[in-house]
């Protein structure tokens, strides 16, 4: 049974005698807390009580703070009897930051990681699943800090709430900040957005970052995060090409260490950009970057085309990947690095601390996690003599807050 905090226990007692004022008082406390109720239990830990008021049959909490298995989206919340108040308490490190949201009458969950994978490989089923989640979702009305969903197929205004615990390094993006115009291009049937600092001319030679899952990064405001870092001097002036996916499911195959992607980026995109912008002549100033499956793809591109990309930023990369789950063990790309000659490539590797949960997908060993795979890759790079500029376990989960926490530090290290 979900523990009931002292505040909710008081609400239950008050509600029994005077329901209206009891709910008003609880709502006022949630507003004052700007969302979840947070109670420190040690110098490094807090209890986070998520509370949601909704007259529905069921509510689930959707957040990586729960460390759920790969195939589960959310955890059911408990309803206080006779009320519309739902709650769930989670113990967490006090420096954590994550997104979270509520699902009203949530759709059925996947029964296994294999079922999840099958859905994500099928465009129609993947679209239907995302639409069901979007329709059920609700942000926390008491929390003004929001983050767009990284992928949407229906309404564009679907958002999560952002929880930054007391010791978290995460800072929300300010309402103002430097302008962040993005030039829109079409390349080989897909969109490519290009950001450069205000005042930069197309002919200016600037470091180039090719960031995969470009539509996800732009929805999540990563261009604004980078612009702020350039403005305050944390990053040098740079140019970022946001490489968009063609469809919801195309990334699943394109990012699975497909040599065609490396050729498209090195032999197609870079010349295309070079006709329009001033690109650095040396590969060390051209970075390929990605998150999740995009991080895996960035690692593969860096291995196969070091002549074009001399630096790589892998953020929460799917380094557990195996192309042949029945016969090939997980960690396929890590082994390729161990077997290949060492390239003159610089790396920065990050992973979310909350991602230390079993991957559970077909072909992965029972103990394999996102974190263990990242550590294995880091160790392999170091053993091979690569220039590893940094390795960081970010205090977040597999979400956009993680990306915000990782991208500036990673690029700063690679472009110092």
Characteristic terms for this protein:
single chain; 416 residues; alpha/beta; Immunoglobulin-like; Rossmann fold; 2 domains; 8-stranded mixed sheet; 6-stranded antiparallel sheet; 12 helices; 33% helix; iron ion binding; Enterochelin_esterase_N
Give a verbal description of the structure.
By secondary structure, the protein is an alpha/beta fold. The protein has twelve helices and 18 strands. The protein has helices at residues 6-17, 19-33, 113-120, 123-136, 214-219, 222-231, 250-254, 259-274, 293-304, 332-339, 370-384, 400-414; strands at residues 37-42, 45-53, 59-63, 75-76, 78-79, 85-93, 97-104, 137-138, 146-148, 159-164, 182-187, 190-195, 208-212, 239-243, 286-291, 311-315, 346-352, 387-394. The strands form three sheets. Strands 11-12-14-13-15-16-17-18 form an eight-stranded mixed beta sheet, sandwiched between helices. Strands 3, 4, 7, 8, 9 and 10 form a six-stranded antiparallel beta sheet that branches. The protein has a four-stranded antiparallel beta sheet with strand order 1-2-6-5.
Unreliable residue stretches: none
List the strand order in the largest sheet: 11-12-14-13-15-16-17-18
Percentage of helical residues? Answer: 25-40%
Counted by DSSP, the helix tally is: 12
**CATH class category label of the largest domain:** Alpha Beta
Main β-sheet: number of strands, strand sense, barrel status?
8 strands, mixed
Strand content: 15-25%
What is the alpha-carbon Rg in Å?
22 Å
Q: If classified by CATH, what would the architecture of the largest domain be?
A: 3-Layer(aba) Sandwich
According to CATH, what is the topology of the largest domain? Rossmann fold
Spatial separation of the terminal alpha carbons:
51 Å
Mean pLDDT: 94
Strand/helix succession: HHEEEEEEEHHEEEEEEHHEHHEHEHEHEH
Number of strands: 18
Number of domains: 2
Shape: globular
């Amino acid at each position: 049974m979900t523990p009931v905090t002292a505040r909710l226990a008081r609400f239950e007692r008050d509600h029994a005698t005077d329901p209206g004022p009891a709910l008003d008082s609880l709502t006022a406390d949630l507003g004052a807390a700007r969302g979840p109720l947070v109670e420190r239990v040690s110098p490094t830990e807090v209890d986070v009580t998520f509370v949601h008021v909704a007259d529905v049959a069921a509510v689930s909490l959707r957040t990586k703070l729960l460390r759920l298995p790969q195939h589960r989206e959310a955890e059911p919340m408990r309803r206080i009897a006779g009320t519309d108040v739902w709650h769930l308490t989670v113990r967490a490190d006090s420096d954590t930051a994550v997104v979270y949201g509520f699902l009203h009458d949530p759709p059925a969950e996947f029964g296994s990681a294999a079922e999840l994978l099958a859905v994500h490989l099928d465009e129609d089923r993947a679209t239907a699943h995302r639409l069901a989640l979007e329709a059920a979702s609700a942000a926390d009305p008491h929390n003004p800090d929001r983050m767009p969903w990284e992928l949407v197929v229906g309404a564009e205004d679907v958002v999560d709430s952002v929880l930054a615990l007391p010791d978290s390094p995460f800072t929300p993006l300010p309402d103002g900040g430097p302008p962040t115009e993005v030039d829109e291009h079409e390349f080989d049937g897909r969109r490519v957005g290009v950001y450069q600092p205000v005042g930069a001319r197309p002919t200016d030679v600037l470091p180039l970052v090719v960031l995969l899952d470009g539509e996800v990064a732009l929805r999540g405001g990563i261009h604004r995060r980078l612009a702020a870092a350039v403005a305050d001097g944390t990053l040098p002036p740079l140019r970022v090409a946001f490489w968009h996916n063609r469809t919801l499911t195309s990334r699943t195959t394109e990012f699975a260490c497909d040599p065609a992607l490396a050729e498209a980026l090195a032999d197609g995109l870079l010349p295309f950009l070079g006709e329009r912008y001033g690109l650095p002549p040396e590969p060390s100033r051209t970075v390929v970057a990605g998150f999740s499956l995009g991080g895996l793809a960035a690692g593969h591109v860096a291995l196969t085309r070091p002549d074009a990309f001399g630096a790589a930023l892998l953020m929460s990369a799917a380094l557990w990947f195996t192309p042949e789950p029945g016969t090939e063990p997980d960690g396929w790309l890590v082994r390729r690095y161990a077997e290949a000659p060492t390239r003159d490539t610089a790396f920065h590797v990050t992973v979310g601390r909350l991602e230390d949960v079993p991957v559970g997908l077909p072909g992965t060993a029972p103990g394999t996690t996102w974190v263990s795979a990242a550590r294995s890759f880091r160790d392999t790079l170091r053993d091979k003599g690569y220039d590893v500029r940094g390795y960081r376990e970010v205090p977040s989960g597999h979400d956009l807050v993680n990306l915000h926490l990782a991208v500036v530090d990673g690029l700063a290290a690679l472009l110092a």
